[in-house]
Design a protein that fits this description.
The complex is a heterodimer.
Chain A: E1 21-22, H1 29-40, E2 44-49, E3 58-64, E4 69-75, E5 81-85, E6 100-102, E7 105-107, E8 114-116, E9 121-123, E10 142-148, E11 151-155, H2 164-175, E12 185-193, H3 197-203, H4 210-213, H5 219-222, E13 234-238, E14 241-247, H6 256-264, E15 294-301, E16 305-310, E17 313-323, E18 326-335, H7 341-362, H8 365-374, E19 379-380, H9 387-406
Antiparallel strand pairs in A: 1-19, 2-11, 3-4, 3-6, 4-5, 5-10, 7-8, 8-9, 10-11, 12-18, 13-14, 14-15, 15-16, 16-17, 17-18
Helix pairs in contact in A: 1-9, 6-7
Chain B: H1 17-20, H2 25-33, H3 37-59, H4 68-90
Helix pairs in contact in B: 2-4, 3-4
The chains are: A alpha+beta, B mainly alpha.
């Protein structure tokens, strides 16, 4: 039995109101230009996982499509994780062209300037022919980097006005202790969509759409007779961030092949409605209402990371705006490693189900964006269980207003 | 074409190998999109009666240490996973009212035959 019927989440936050939300900020380029400076150049942004830089010399390159930036992230000999702009200080070429690898020095493929793992310029071919070459001032430009629960975040401010821990606040504490390190089998999908970045983030932070948009696919996994409208178990607003807890349908009877997948790979089933399937002790504030029908929490790390944490797997979406009206989007999933060949089938079933459901989720977005630009919708009317969307509107505006106050 | 031989209890499925033993999830997705519903149904319904037995069989094999026949059987099962939503959810090859999957291809792929 789910406790999803009597809650009124929005009324607990009177400062957010209950009225309509104007839609200008979801398509206008001038507001987007402000968001770039106020939000994307100031917030901590997810860049990768510690497993990608497991040993000294391991590196990966994270591209930040919003700024056409290329960030080189590595582990130094002393074990520290460092991030640099992937820019040779001679003529500006990328120092590292591979997306990942292992090395002791990064050597620019243009003229062969090389940098050690600490970003220091250590090699300049034919250096005698330069004038007043001051190597100490020619290190790779460093980017602020910090780690939370194995997730590597970067910050594009020279000195961030909040530490990562301060930035993540209660949301970070609430999710700490989840067994993220068990998600060793990693898959991802990437694409571009003509949508505003906020509309895309928002589309994953309510479940009101589930019984309708997903009626052919996952509706029955999530919405049973006790919860026909996809009401949420919990909405948690904290600082810059927000988290929703999503119920499943305990009565759900899987379809034939799907049922076999769940049976032979129980930890990989994302939509089975069984809650915690693999015996993990989950942190207290994941599924905070302790509802037995819980499937996953969706934690939004402002501005552009959505982290879904479930009993058997976790996955994320990261959405990078390219303009006010289109985004680059990555979905990355982290499954428990399959031990047997039968479990590999269960993994594939989970991936395919997730991808198909997400193709349903995202097909609405380009139609919405056209309506926004044509101004045939000027206000969004939010359901009580769309509170996370309302909160995003307020958070974005707060960041932009604070930025404008600081930079007259 | 290399050897297309399945463990002996599953010989009946060998006719599907040339079409459905593929090398990764993007190829499987493309094959699904390029098939008719009838073709997908035929594959699904001829596999379904043997699927449980196949999974019980493969439960006894460690991923990464699969003999050739079992590896081929797993390849077919991975395609069954790809095809299943077309049958169990949509009744057509594509997601109904879904984004074109060609616009959202897999970038990082799980290995098919090892962890």
């Amino acid at each position: 039995m789910s406790n999803t019927t009597e809650t009124r989440f929005t009324l607990k936050h009177p400062e957010l109101g209950t009225g309509p939300i104007p839609t200008d900020i979801y398509w206008k380029e001038d507001f987007y230009e402000k968001e770039l400076e106020a939000i994307f150049r100031r917030a901590w942004l997810w860049a990768g996982r510690v497993e990608q830089v497991a040993k000294p010399g391991a590196f990966f390159v994270k591209s930040i499509p919003t700024f056409d930036a290329s960030i080189l992230i590595t582990r130094t000999s002393s074990g520290a994780i460092k991030a640099y702009h992937n820019t040779c200080q001679h003529r500006g070429n990328h120092v590292e062209l591979s997306s990942e690898g292992n090395c002791r020095v990064f050597t620019c493929p243009f003229h062969g300037w090389s940098y050690n793992l600490d970003g220091e310029l250590t090699g300049v071919p034919d250096s005698d022919a330069f004038y007043d070459l001051d190597r100490s001032s020619l290190s790779l430009p460093e980017v602020s980097v910090d780690v939370w629960e194995g997730f590597i975040f970067i910050n594009l401010q020279e000195s961030p006005n909040e530490t990562l821990e301060e930035f993540l606040g209660k949301q970070g504490r609430n999710l700490s202790g989840y067994p993220f390190e068990k998600g060793k089998a990693v898959f991802s999908y990437e694409g571009q969509i003509d949508t505003n970045w906020k509309c895309m983030v928002d589309s994953f932070t309510e479940a009101y759409h589930v019984p309708v948009l997903h009626k052919r696919s996952v509706k029955d996994s999530f919405c049973g007779p006790n919860n026909p409208h996809g009401r949420l178990l919990d909405v948690d607003l904290s600082g810059h961030h927000r988290k929703i807890s999503v119920a499943g349908n305990p009565e759900y009877q899987p379809r034939p092949v799907q049922g076999l997948a769940y049976r032979f790979s129980p930890g990989a089933a994302v939509t089975s409605g069984d809650g915690d399937q693999s015996g993990n002790q989950l942190p207290e504030n994941i599924n905070p209402t302790k509802d037995p029908s819980w499937v996953f929490d969706i934690a939004v790390f402002f501005p552009n990371l959505l982290l879904f944490v479930g009993g058997g797997m976790h996955f994320l979406h990261q959405i990078w705006p390219l303009s006010a009206n289109n985004v680059h989007w990555e979905m990355r999933g982290f499954l428990r490693e399959a031990q047997t060949a039968a479990e590999r089938f269960g993994q594939e079933n989970s991936i395919v189900e997730l991808r198909d459901a997400v193709l349903e989720d995202t097909n609405t977005l380009e139609r919405i964006q056209i309506a926004l630009k044509r101004q045939t919708i000027r206000e969004f009317i939010y359901h009580d269980h769309e509170l996370a969307l309302r909160y995003n509107f307020h958070t974005v505006n707060r960041w932009v207003q604070e930025y404008e106050k600081e930079t007259p | 074409m290399t050897s297309q031989s399945l463990p002996k209890e599953f010989k009946r499925l060998e006719c599907w190998c040339s079409r459905w033993a593929l090398s990764n999830s993007n190829e499987r997705s493309r094959q699904r999109q390029n098939s008719t519903l009838d073709e997908l149904e035929e594959f699904y319904s001829s596999f379904l009666p043997l699927a449980e037995k196949a999974l019980i069989h493969l439960s006894g094999f460690k991923l990464g240490e699969l003999p050739k026949e079992e590896a081929l059987l797993l390849k077919l099962l991975l395609s069954l996973a790809e095809v299943t939503p077309a049958i169990e959810w949509y009744g057509q090859p594509r997601v109904i009212d879904g984004l074109d999957p060609e616009r959202f291809p897999a970038a990082l792929l799980l290995k098919d035959l090892s962890p």
